[in-house]
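The instructor's notes for this session suggest beginning with a concrete chain rather than abstract definitions. Hand out the sequence below and ask the class to guess, before any prediction is shown, which regions might be ordered.
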Amino acid sequence: MRAGYDAAAAGYAQELAGELAHKPFDRWLLDRVAVEADGGPVADVGTGPGHVAARLAESGASVVGVDLSPAMVDKARSLFPDLEFEAGDLTNLLRPRAASGWSAITAWYAFVHMAASELPAVIAGLARVLVPGGRLAFALHVGDEVRHLDEFFGAPVDLDFVQHNASEVVEAVTAAGLVDVEWYLRSPLRDVETPTDRLYVLARKPL
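After discussion, reveal the predicted structure:
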């Protein structure tokens, strides 16, 4: 997976770094997360070219973007030189250096390569490194397909893209001990994105 995203980083950034301009719901939810983090550290995992992290920062968050792909991290740093980005694996996210945990974690389409059986453990792992009262917010594709790609933004890859069952995802969030779970479904935006339904989840770690 890392090799695929390293190869596709330039094309990916060119096509998607500006996508939030066309996605008002995404902007609204990210702005909420930034406000509710209340100045505490925020991790944007699977940050890609850094545009989600940049939106969080614009809304006042103290954010670090984390991505498995070093090439994506380099691209994010070049696009948003005032922000902090680092290479890392969201399945082994460490606590921030100067705090006991993250005030919020965002994962915008960062779960697209995970099987349904893997997702509960991943969500639970992210919940563990939140501070009490911290927020987890993520977006993913809804459905029952696994799509294999040999080409991605002009680069040869070997990637499986997994759609998830909305009810099972929400159950995994609850099973991880998170509360005040909000979830939203929306249809794809025509001519803007891949034509799949989207699920957004926002939840809180108990105090």
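Then share the key points. Strands lie at 41-45, 62-67, 84-87, 102-108, 130-142, 146-152, 155-162, 179-186, 197-204. The chain has a mean pLDDT of 94.
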